[in-house]
Amino acid sequence: MSQSFDVLVIGSGIAGLSFALDVAKRGRSVAILTKKDKADSSTNWAQGGLAAVTALTDDFPAHVRDTLAAGDGLCDPKVVRAIVRDGPECVRELAEWGVRFSRGPGGGYELGREGGHGARRILHVKDMTGRIIEEALLKAVAREPRIALFEHFFAIDVITRRKLAPRTPRGGDRVLGVHALDVRDGRVLTFRAPVVMLATGGAGQVYLYTTNPDIATGDGVAMAWRAGVEVRNMEFIQFHPTALYSATGRRFLISEALRGEGAVLRNLAGEAFMRGVHPLADLAPRDIVARAIDAEMKKSGAAHVWLDIRHRNEAWLRRRFPQIFAACRALGLNLARDLIPVVPAAHYVCGGVATTIAAETSLSGLYACGEVACTGLHGANRLASNSLLEAVVMARRGADSVDRYLRAVARARAPVPDIPVWVDLGGGDTDERVVISHNWDELRRTMWDYVGIMRTTKRLERARHRIANLSREIQDYYWNFSVDARLLELRNLLQVAGLIVDCALQRKESRGLHAIADHPRKLRTARDSRLVKK
Ligand code: FAD
Ligand code: SIN
Question: pLDDT tens digit string along 285-338?
Fold first, then answer.
């Protein structure tokens, strides 16, 4: 069975939903495929907010400067300027779709502050910014008759001309659609379209400890990579400095916005250790704060450090951070009275599928936006709250370029080849599937232990070796078993882990989020790390 659309969107977070709305507005038929419930996304969990210049006391050059400083010499300044400049217009568009950011007593936006920002410029809805955005966009999508939303459809791979006819030269390759698993009945269906937008989010699940939801398994990066598309800067994994420490291993985020309101990090001796580390102290960029916490924990052997916001009263904290207040409460902690145990956790992938400022990848018809993409905005370390900004700006820019591409496709009238149906090589011993969860655990621990905040070449090589062994085993499963979501996710995670390690081994310097003991200095010239499948 196959269905045809003008545009397929993979993912229903801020990037996928806002792109779908923008492209449907231009009269295109759109299918959104999403692998779990429609709201399951990192977007839904975002707390701090969206960075954009809206205050009279702020300006574009200041936001650009802060982004470049956080990115440690690797941002593309043209891209930074373009995305920052588009911010306010996209904020207006979000308002049209129903997003109501928190406002202060005077009626203006109540702006938050986070690490690396020299000014208050974070629009937020208390500490539930992502949930409110996700709800508003899903409602807007439900009102749009040109968009069909398919929940529990797992995109497996992009179908390209070259896959059907391997002699097609790379330059003549283009997108024809995707194969997707209907997770609820196990069938693989074909969705046909000349355009596929990858909006699949991040890959935090590649690490043992992460702030990310379960959907964050790097599927889009792995799909693009398998389709021969360039992937960039995957070594820059952002570890958020302050996830709530708990013995269960789950890592609930404690937003940086608390430090924006004066919270201070303390070691177990009670010392505010960030003061000696960076002029911005607790509001230094994330790479610096996470490394400082890691160093404190290694020095003392402690399992966490403390976050202290006891200078604020309970009523204020309950109003400004209701979600975080409740999560701490569930562990018997009161933000107004107790020190909060926090640890770094894998949070965001700064690299990804290489795109232009129009969201185009190196494959005709394949686009990417949101966390899956690498536009050049974040460089070696993302500035806080620039992710929601980038997603919504790039979705809009992507919609413009997709519209142009579809007009060119219509003019060219190229014949569309038949796509063979998916053949299930099938079956396989279900008892054997326990190997999938064992390998999953081994991968996540390997990445945490060997490809974490502080790296060495030796540990990276050890990780590469383990990943190669696990990948061989899982490839064997892929070809001999009926596919299911867990197997597909593990296959993708292994591919992404390999890309992170390969990029990390390419970089012979310490820069931004990539700190490696063998190469402690920064090279004079900053270069992206780039990988393309042979
Ligand atoms: P997501 O919102 O993650 O959506 C990805 C979608 O793709 C999901 O619907 C998923 O199910 C789907 N998908 C994935 N693979 C497949 C597949 N194979 N087939 C079908 N569907 C698939 N950033 C900020 O700027 N400000 C913040 O305050 C902030 N807070 C954060 C707090 C937390 C706890 C986390 C985890 C992240 C936070 N971030 C924040 C980062 C930001 O939320 C994400 O980078 C951003 O939401 C990503 O949006 P996205 O649309 O690219 O991906
Ligand atoms: C946070 O609220 O600390 C997360 C913000 C972000 O990831 O940009």
Answer: 999 999 999 999 999 999 999 999 999 999 999 999 999 999 999 999 999 999
474 C-alpha to ligand 1 centroid (Å): 26
CATH number of the domain at 2-44+129-235+350-412, out of 3.20.110.20, 2.60.40.1080, 3.40.1360.10, 3.50.50.60? Answer: 3.50.50.60
Other Cβ atoms within 10 Å of 29 Cβ, number:
15
Q: Does domain 430-526 have CATH number 3.60.110.10?
A: no
Q: Which atom of ligand 1 is nearest to the CA of 373?
A: 52
**430: pLDDT confidence band, cut at 50, 70 and 90?**
low
User: In this structure, what token pair is assigned to residue 284?
Assistant: 């230094």
Q: Which ligand is nearest to the CA of 8?
A: 1
What b/e readout covers 240-261, taking b as 16+ CB neighbours within 10 angstroms?
Answer: bbbbbbeeeeebbbbbbbbbbb
In the chain, the N- to C-terminal Cα span, in Å, equals 32
Residue ranges around ligand 2 (CB below 6 Å): 47-48, 255-257, 384-385, 387
Ligand 1 close to Cβ of residue 218 (< 6 A): no
Predicted confidence at residue 431, as pLDDT, reads: 64
Question: What are the sequence ranges of the domains in the chain?
Answer: 2-44+129-235+350-412, 241-347, 430-526
Q: Quick one: which atom of ligand 2 is closest to the CA of 382?
A: 8
| pLDDT confidence of residue 247 | 85
pLDDT digits (tens, 9 = 90+) for 439-467: 999 999 999 999 999 999 999 999 999 99
CA atoms within 13 A on the CB side of 403: 16
Asked whether 221 and 353 are in contact (CB, 8 A), the reply is yes
* Residue of 253, 286, 513 to mutate, ligand 2, most atoms within 8 A of C-beta: 253
- Going from the Cα of 498 to the center of ligand 2, the distance in angstroms, rounded, reads 26
CB atoms within 10 A of CB 1: 9
State the ligand closest to the CA atom of 496: 1
- This prediction has a pTM of 0.98
Please identify, in words, the CATH class of the domain defined by 241-347: alpha beta
pLDDT band at 171 (very low <50, low <70, confident <90, very high): confident
State the pLDDT confidence band at 28, using cuts at 50, 70 and 90.
very high
Q: Mind telling me the catalytic residues?
A: 286
